[in-house]
Amino acid sequence: MFSLNTGLFTYFLNLWQIDSVSRPVPYYVIFFSLILITIASGYLLGSINPSIILSRVFYHDDIRSHGSGNAGMTNVMRTYGKKAALFTLAGDTLKTALAVFIGGLCFGFGYVGGIATGEGGYVAGLFAVVGHIYPAYYKMKGGKGVLVTATMALILTPIPFAIIFLLFAGVLALSKYVSLASVSAAVMYPVAVYATFKVMFAGSPIPGLVALSTILIACLIVYAHRGNLQRISDRTERKFSFGKKPENDESEHTDDDGH
Q1: pTM for the model
Q2: Model confidence over 12-52: pLDDT tens digits?
Q3: How many CB atoms lie within 10 A of CB 168?
Q4: pLDDT at 73
Q5: From residue 73, how far is each of 78, 148, 164, 195, 206 by CA, in Å?
Q6: What distance in Å separates the CA atoms of residue 27 and residue 201, rounded to the nearest whole number?
Q7: I need a surface site. Which of 10, 28, 128, 238 has the fewest CB within 10 A?
Q8: Residues 6+ away with beta carbon under 8 Å from 176
Q9: Cα-flanking dihedrals φ and ψ of residue 116, to 5°?
Q10: Of 152, 179, 181, which Cα lies nearest the Cα of 168?
């Protein structure tokens, strides 16, 4: 019987093993078909950028022509205001949740003690981050993947999410740099996931694709923020506030966007 905890691959594999006489499709064809669906759906959904859509449809503009040039929620808030930022938040959360759901549907979520052990959701989340940073629809110029990663972490690893959220909030409160808080949380994410698996599963090894996906996500986010980190070093990075800044703000081009 099919369930979301085990996924389609296990379901089809069980059917394949039962039907030992007639096997029209080898099991590895099923596996590679589902992994392709997971990767493609993650990347294509991740490539949808609500901030770019919002700026074009409602403002007849391109968010990437303002501030840091980044299609992210912080830049949207500074350029268009809080309502536009909330639209971006909702859109990025929805697309990531759908991508992770498809990955879980294909390979199972495998929730044990409130944490997903199935690798499909993590692979989908990784490629959603790739799509968000390098979107197929917008000439490979998108956001920085933080909100996508946070959504994936909340769905698959709520305990590590709580840890990295507290770290993010603490660094942001102390430094006022969204980018520094984002990078700090991203680097901590694979560490928090590894520690959680070790504690919850009595030292059992963390699934390989879970470890690889979280490490690659951390690397992607750090790389996407390389310009911000350089500006922090140069003391030219702008600090975050919840207010909308005027368009003629001379410091706008050092936008501290960690989205």
Answers
A1: 0.88
A2: 888 776 655 556 667 788 899 999 999 999 999 999 999 99
A3: 22
A4: 85
A5: 9, 11, 19, 30, 32
A6: 29
A7: 28
A8: 239, 240, 241
A9: -80, 130
A10: 181
